[in-house]
């Protein structure tokens, strides 16, 4: 039985350098993957991350307290005449917008049909 085709022959320097580069790259890749996996757990429990989360919770609570204070001030100090004036201003604004929309509609109908709407 002839097994001469199994013999690898002499190894060249280029093959040795290529093997070394491959092994080095393989090691660096494994190190990078392990570093990424560890970085995720470090970031999840780092004191800075915990402090940031606590600050965000505190800001939300302060925002809720501020809104509650605004509502309490509005209930306590806003009088009926202020509300009446505000309602009147809103009604004036709505009627003004209605008038403008009516004029715009009439102008558009006149431009499209060539005659005034009746």
Question: What would you say this structure looks like, in words?
Answer:
With 118 residues, this protein is mostly helical. It has 3 domains: 13-45; 46-77; 79-118, no CATH class. The chain contains 3 helices and no strands. The longest helix has 34 residues, at 80-113. The chain is elongated. It starts with 12 loop residues before the first helix and ends in a 5-residue tail after the last helix. The mean pLDDT is 83. Keywords: Coiled coil, Membrane, Transmembrane, Transmembrane helix. Residues 52-103 form a coiled coil. The chain crosses the membrane at residues 12-34.
Explain the layout of strands and helices.
Layout: H1 13-45, H2 47-77, H3 80-113
Condensed summary:
With 118 residues, the chain is an all-alpha fold.
Total number of helices: 3
Structural category: mainly alpha
| Count of domain modules | 3
Order of helices and strands: HHH
Termini distance? 110 Å
What's the gyration radius in Å?
39 Å
Kindly state the percentage of residues in helix.
Answer: over 70%
How much of the sequence lies in strands comes to under 5%
Unreliable segments of 5+ consecutive residues? none
Q: Please state the average pLDDT score.
A: 83
Cα shape: elongated
Largest sheet, if any?
none
How many β-strand runs?
0
Keywords: Coiled coil, Membrane, Transmembrane, Transmembrane helix
Coiled coil: 52-103
Transmembrane segments: 12-34
